[in-house]
Amino acid sequence: MQIIALNGSPRKENSTTKKLVDEVLFGVRTAGAETSYIDLCQYTIGYCTGCGSCYISGNCVIDDDYPEILKRILSADGIVFASPNYINQVTAQVKTFLDRSADAIHCQRFSGMYGCSVSTAGGSGALEVAAYLNRTLGILGADTVGGVGVVMAEGEEAWNRAVQEARKLGKDLVDAIQVRRKFPEQEAVHHEMHERMKALILSNKDVWKHEYRYWQDKGWL
Ligand SMILES: Cc1cc2nc3c(=O)[nH]c(=O)nc-3n(C[C@H](O)[C@H](O)[C@H](O)COP(=O)(O)O)c2cc1C
User: Fold this and answer.
1) Looking at the whole model, is its pTM more than 0.85?
2) Residue 217: Cβ within 10 Å count
């Protein structure tokens, strides 16, 4: 079993968020799975221009590292999304990556995958950012097992608590994948999303040829 983490902090090895992600991945390895890590800011990912080419052809007009990262994520069994809180949101690098994922959302490419999210913040909002990342994993089709967030201003005790939570979260992610855990509330959200995307694909079927074909091949239409 392979779990991949994607961190959108630009602070490389100094990233506090990376340190917390490392604890999640420690938990993952303790539970017997393999891990890999993507430092998102070391890659080149351009802004979505909203041209709709990916809906039509499955490919973006921008030639950059996005497809490679998506491919790596899709080849894993589970994903850890991580970002520090930048002005009560994910970093611009993470948002840029997510904006490029509209086709992946239309095609529910993360269906059957499991994930969790991690965030750190200076003074507030870490859990909110982790919750946003989990909601995004959800609209991509994944089930999420939980999130961990820590506000650094709360000091060492809060950090130590978060480390324990992060290790537990990593183990829980592996367990959820092993038993193919069901989340009835999330299934309802997936169902609603599926119906909404289906209507969208059908109403654009003459133009969004790649997405229509993808849904047909999946047997979802
Ligand atoms: C541009 C910028 C914006 C930030 N915005 C917030 C914020 O809105 N709220 C907050 O609590 N911390 C904010 N922070 C602090 C970071 O969230 C915090 O230092 C975090 O732990 C950094 O994680 P990293 O080391 O993984 O990059 C901000 C930091 C930067 C550089």
Assistant:
1) yes
2) 9
